Amino acid sequence: MEPAPMTAPRRDAPHTPAESALLAHLGRALGSEGLRASALSRATYRRDASFLNADPLAIALPATRDELAVVLRACRDHQVPFTPRAAGTGLAGGATPTGVGGVRPLVVSVARMDRLLELDVVNRRAHVEPGMVNARLGRAVAAKGLRFAPDPASQIAATLGGNVATNAGGIHVLTYGVMSQHVLAVELMDTDGEIHLLDGRLPEQTGLDLRGLSVGGEGTLGIVVGAWLRLLPAPPAIGTLLAGFDTLEAAAATVGALVTSDRLPDAVELMDARAIALVEDYAQAGYPTDAAAVLLLEYEGLAAGVSAGVDTAARLAGEHGATEVVRAADADQRARIWKGRKAVAGAIAQQAPDFFLQDVVVPRSRLGEMLDAVVAIGEREGLIILNVVHAGDGNLHPFVLFDRREEGVLDRVFAAGHDIVTTALALDGTVTGEHGVGIEKRDFLSQVYTADDLAVQQAVRRAMEPSGLANPDKVLPTTVGCQEARMVPEGAWV
Ligand SMILES: Cc1cc2nc3c(=O)[nH]c(=O)nc-3n(C[C@H](O)[C@H](O)[C@H](O)COP(=O)(O)OP(=O)(O)OC[C@H]3O[C@@H](n4cnc5c(N)ncnc54)[C@H](O)[C@@H]3O)c2cc1C
Questions:
Q1: CATH number of 17-112
Q2: What is the rounded CA–CA span in Å between residue 233 and residue 235?
Q3: Measured between alpha carbons, how far is 295 from 272 in angstroms, rounded to an integer?
Q4: According to CATH, what is the number of the domain 237-345?
Q5: What per-residue confidence (pLDDT) applies to 494?
Q6: CATH architecture for segment(s) 352-426
Q7: H-helix or E-strand containing 272?
Q8: How confident is the model at residue 11 (pLDDT cuts 50, 70, 90)?
Q9: Distance CA 272, CA 385 (A)
Q10: 153 lines ligand 1 (CB under 6 A)
């Protein structure tokens, strides 16, 4: 990946008159709890979970819709761009506070707007504020025998507003789909402080699906201030299985057999030997450390169907040479198996100072080819790359491990990232599955869409967010911005 061009940083630069006026206005309106501008606060909000970083003007933390409206109107009045932000777990630089034309943006965090507004059991829907953490909703609805299906691996920190904005995926995408399938309605605030309800709460809607258009906007369409989310009945039975293989090819072939069997699993995750070793060291999930790959499989539904599914999976894994098949005996063992999968980023942090996490998708029939290519790219660049894959949907997450202090390593990391993306494209895949476009994938979009497609997307964006102040330099390739600065990890600019 080429480091994206962006506006040059202006750390501790004197404020322009517009910036000073904005900060004075917001200071009066929000107080010290709602506006942070110290060097320490700005350093904290320089980046999301990617390593793309930039210096914000300040951080607004409104606690209510009224406070947020004050913030957005002030940005409009003083023509200061803003970067919506929630938990900052995004991996594409979407919440990194880049600006345009040398103007530092205001970070607008919705983290304090985190209430569950309504749990409507009869209509099976929840009305939430954007800062509510995904896993918290899961716990709240479980008490009513319900579940919220989207389960990104980051769900203990990522917010529902962030999930709407990135159209997040997760472990159960194979049968339940991505976030968009679970968002019934979105409330979007514009820079006049007006809230637009993009409604799809009724099972049958009339007209164009504007609700769908608002999911995945990555903060470029305004700020999500509320969402109605679809709830499903909690499954009566769950069966989880762990299968170890001697080769990556055997694991990938098993995936093909599973998804064409008459018992489609609800989750099919693949981890390679390096991921297994790291996770076992860190989380003791019970994975076979001598395996070249493991599959984590799950079936949900009525007990008889689940049991038949688990039997089918065990048989197919055996037929493809599985060296070990473990069926989770109880909820604790199931939790342990998934704990390993969800602990990958934490495990890596103990072993490598830095990682660059890619996110690409290929048709699952080409998964084996793509995995081989990732291994070859790692060898060519002399980098350790470990693979964690939502294998059922062909969504790969190669983690490139590195130490930024090593001379020249960044060029190799970027080269590997770039080659992983272009390989996915060559295999009829695409540049991001679930982490979004942000800045990181922005310039690849012209390889995914035609100029006409991009012009339509730009027109939709302009129609929905005419001020152009909301996350202006994200997602769509743009000629705005300057080329003299290149973004590199924390603190360094060339
Ligand atoms: C360890 C790890 C594992 C992950 N696993 C997954 C996974 O399995 N599946 C997956 O899909 N993602 C995953 N992610 C990525 C990330 O968690 C998701 O993109 C998540 O949806 C981001 O939510 P957030 O609250 O952190 O948003 P942020 O990172 O704060 O923001 C993300 C984007 O949304 C915009 N935004 C945030 N809130 C709003 C709002 N209220 N209104 C408008 N725009 C807004 C921001 O401007 C930015 O563009 C993972 C990340 C990590 C670090």
A1: 3.30.43.10
A2: 6
A3: 9
A4: 3.30.70.2190
A5: 20
A6: 2-Layer Sandwich (3.30)
A7: strand 267-272
A8: low
A9: 10
A10: yes
- Does ligand 1 have an atom closer than 6 angstroms to the CB of 170? yes
Structure tokens belonging to residue 289: 């450390």
- In tens, the pLDDT along 154-169 reads 999 999 999 999 999 9
pLDDT in tens, 33-66: 999 999 999 999 999 999 889 999 999 999 999 9
Amino acid at 9: P
Domain locations in the chain as residue ranges: 17-112, 116-233, 237-345, 352-426
pLDDT at 204 over 50: yes
91 lines ligand 1 (CB under 6 A): yes
In the structure, how many helices (H) and strands (E) does the chain have?
16, 19
pLDDT in tens, 337-360: 999 998 998 899 888 999 999 999
Ligand 1, pocket-test mutation among 61, 112, 154, 355, most atoms within 8 A of CB: 154
Topology match between the domains 237-345 and 352-426: yes
Tell the residue nearest (CA) to atom 9 of ligand 1: 152
Q: Is 150 in the pocket of ligand 1 (CB under 6 A)?
A: no
User: Rg of the Cα trace of the chain?
Assistant: 23
pTM: 0.92
With a 6 Å cutoff on the Cβ, whether 130 touches ligand 1 is yes
| In contact, 195 and 225? CB cutoff 8 Å | yes
Architecture of domain 116-233: 2-Layer Sandwich (3.30)
Q: Name residue, tokens 């319900």.
A: 146
Cα-to-centroid distance, 84 and ligand 1 (Å)? 11
Both tokens of 256, joined, read 């093909």
Q: Using the atom order of ligand 1, give the atom closest to the CA of residue 48.
A: 29
